[in-house]
Amino acid sequence: MVDQRLLKILDIDGIVIIPSVLPLDQVAILRTELELAIAEDNITHTDIFDKGMVHNCMVRGKNMACLLDNEILIAYLDAAFSSTCILYAYQSSSLMPGKGNYGSRVHVDSPRFIPGYATNMGVIFPLDDFTKENGATFFLKKSHKNAELPSDSVFSANASRAYCSAGDMILFSGRLVHAAGENTTGRARHSLTINVCRSYMRQRFDFPRLMSVDAVNNLGPKGKRLIGMNVRVPTSL
Fold first, then answer.
1. 109-130 pLDDT, tens digit each
2. Alpha helices, DSSP H only, in 55-185?
3. What is the pLDDT of residue 1?
4. Which of 196, 181, 32, 156 is nearest to 103 (CA)?
């Protein structure tokens, strides 16, 4: 299931695209769930800096929750990062027509830099093709091995683009310097993003408590591990 050649690319460049991880019918369902969540947030959260970004997607749609059980996702995280890794964050990244988003700044997803040791890994599931016109992610190859971020001008002069198809999976180092592009089309470009961390680290939210009992029980053992069920602490004696 895991292509060692792709793992080598990930190690060298800090990013790799695994093709055709999700069937297109599943992509369509996920896209519908995400758009419903965005519409709900546009009513309840009208004035926020990250407008259009849906947080904690596992509680915003049944199919978005079940994505955490994806066998290919788990296999690559286990092989490329850690077989005990847990979810740090699960949110969306959408580019609305004529816009960028909060992720369009040049940035890394993990502030920690430890030479030779990764603390975080990122995953993007494109729910639309990533093209030049709709803002395919910019990234700087090999930048995950540098302690310092480049200047915006250096990044712009040397960045590559993550062109890929809906249903592919982008796997990248939490230290990879990247930035979302700008969507110049008339259609929203959606994706789901996952950040995982080492099992001894704290998650952004208490995901096992955030999710309903039914939603947790609907996950398999690997999905339950990913949301943090194996690293919970007692709430009473």
1. 999 999 999 999 999 999 999 9
2. 62-66, 71-80, 152-158
3. 82
4. 181
